[in-house]
Amino acid sequence: MAETSPKIKIMAGAAPDLSAATFQIFDESHTIGNALRWMIMKNPKVEFCGYSVPHPSENLIQLRIQMYDGLSSLNTLLEALANLDSVCETIENKYHSSLATNDYERWEERS
């Protein structure tokens, strides 16, 4: 069975208590980077969060999280991923519900 590479890697230089760390997230782009940054920054215990795409030819993002009071940036990342998943699931459910009940706006394209 072939081994798979990890999806997320903690980069060198993280604080020993993980209160500040940079994570590499592989096979992702600005789409999840900006959504994760937004979700993480909603947490009042987060001091800083930012992401970058190191190079356009590399299919990865780097996400930096710094926490107040020595809290774990890893736990914050995992919580943000779960919250983002929940938001996406809610949107999908509302979308399917509106389709099933024909409760959506219709637009007619005019030339």
Automatic annotation (TrEMBL):
One of its GO terms (molecular function) is protein dimerization activity. Residues 20-93 form the DNA-directed RNA polymerase RBP11-like dimerisation domain. The keyword Nucleus applies. The keyword Phosphoprotein does not apply. GO terms for biological process: transcription by RNA polymerase III; transcription elongation by RNA polymerase I. One of its GO terms (cellular component) is nuclear DNA-directed RNA polymerase complex. This is DNA-directed RNA polymerases I and III subunit RPAC2. It comes from Suillus placidus.
